[in-house]
Amino acid sequence: MDRKLTSITLALIVILAIFLLLVYVGGNVLGIERLKTGENPLLRFVFVIVGLLIALVIYYVTRENKVWEVGTREVVYMAIGAALYAIFSYLFNGTVFVVPSVSQVALRPAIAIPMFFGYAFGPVVGFFTGAVGNMFGDALTGFGLSPQWSIGNGLVGLVSGMALLFPDKKKSVNTVLIISVVLAVLATLVYFVNRTVPNMLYFAPEQNIFGDQPISAFAGLSAIIGLILVLAVRYLFRDNLDIAAAVTWGMLGDLIGIGFAAISDVWINGFPLGVAIVGEFLPSAGPNLIFAAILVPILVAAYAAVQRQSGR
Amino acid sequence: MLVAWRYRERKSLVQWFDPRAWFIFYGCFLASTLLFWDMRYLSIFALVALIVLLTSGVEWHEMRRPLLFIITFIFFFSFLTFLTGRGGVEVYHQEHLIKRLALPVTIFGWQPAINITWERTFFALSQLLRVFSLACMTIVIPYTINPAHYGITFRGLGLPDKIAYAIDLTMRFIPTFGRDFQLTLDAQRARGYELEKLKGGLIAQVRKMAPLIVPVTIHAIIASEDIIDAMDLRAFGVGPRTWLDTLEYHRRDRILIVFSILFFVAALFLSFFSFGKFWVPPIFS
After folding, report:
1. Which of these, A5, A156, A178, A192, could form a disulfide with A253 (CB 3.0-4.6 Å)?
2. Among A45, A88, A95, whose Cβ lies nearest the Cβ of B213?
3. Number of domains in chain A
4. Helical spans, DSSP H, in B234-272
5. Model's pTM, two decimal places?
6. Closest chain A CA to residue B233
7. What are the counts of helices (DSSP H) followed by strands (DSSP E) for chain A?
8. Is A290 near chain B, with CB under 8 Å?
9. d(CA A16, CA A13)
């Protein structure tokens, strides 16, 4: 198994290197327009590889740890997580049920699933839940056009599951909290610099808005609002470290996973960095934090009750 | 209890091939579609997808609901694209006006108006073809691939046993959880819960989603204990897995695989050399 994994990793690195070489030599040295960075759909595949490599590197560094073991239980949880994520993201994507939106933020609670499954059952389950669930969710809706977003969702689950890698829960939670605060504040600073960027994820046909309206203050500040909620959960439940840890690691997962997907659009769609962050990252990662801060604690508490009952 | 997709044996193009070969074709088809914005190329894809759909042997009454849903969805989104030109900004930089429709009223000095341009029209048409091809190819899969073959198919495509089995289970769980969600929704409605009338601010609304999401999730986890036990009793994951059915490649499958790979390589090649970018008939631009 391990040797196989090494060869997969090597193959991915070789493909990536060839691509980068093509972009560098073809685009910068020879000046072939097509290969220059900028709008380039081919790069979707490159970013899928980059995302997989990130996951493999995290695995490789901590491969001794027991959380990477996959048994029967994990296989079933992977399938449940992915199926639930697919169903929820299909049901709440705004076409099946018309869910209202509050100042440009639509209700998409599904993201709590990869975070919860990652935190409760480990990074492998989290990654599978996010990546495969997103793929199937897209397939149910009828269009799966952005494989790099599936990998981004996978990273959300993976990072949430990394909580189990650290034996000292309290210390790790505090470190993660500091990293997340820095990331969220940085993204919000970008918003203050680019306040007129349209919110590309907001559609309201009846009001003639199709992802072209300047981002609302609420959506722009949603990362900070989510952060405040997460901090509140962290300190309200300081006696129940499980809940606090699930929410904080989920937050880091959200910032990293969605950040990965949004920033990859800088190369794939040729967005300027500010547009990718303000137009895509904030309106998806920010509200995700709000949903996570509310729903993940409820799920963790409900699961703890089940565990007590069944004694597992 | 598991709810199954509506698979049955059919005389159809899809089922004539080995499911592994078909998934390779499907993957290459999807990946190639992503590379093009040119209507002329996309109409080839749409034609292939249409042939697959019509020869799939799935009867109208079986797929009426999902098909109508997806078609409405696709038309709705293409129409949005048409009205706004959203998304198109990335592929064209100049627009040629056909007509400007404006309402004869002004609201606070702003006059609602739509610019209909050739670029937007063709962009919307291209998008329609693109999403239509993807949707047609996707919708036939649950009807035409035997659920008993999901696992062996993904194993045969080179995934490890456990991952292949996890994907197999995912595909089986999706319709089951869909039913569970509906049951939970009905049960909560009987208690006076109204999903359609969520009130309050965003945070209050999210909190009100919990009565749906939490029971479905927790029920799925509790019910999984039976599946885990059943799998453990059959020594899942102890040694290399054997599968009840075996799949065999025939000549037609090998031809399809070679064709799919060549097709994808050709698509990559064309897209590398800037073929298949967004296209508007030259007379209009």
Report:
1. A156
2. A88
3. 1
4. 251-272
5. 0.87
6. A72
7. 12, 4
8. yes
9. 5
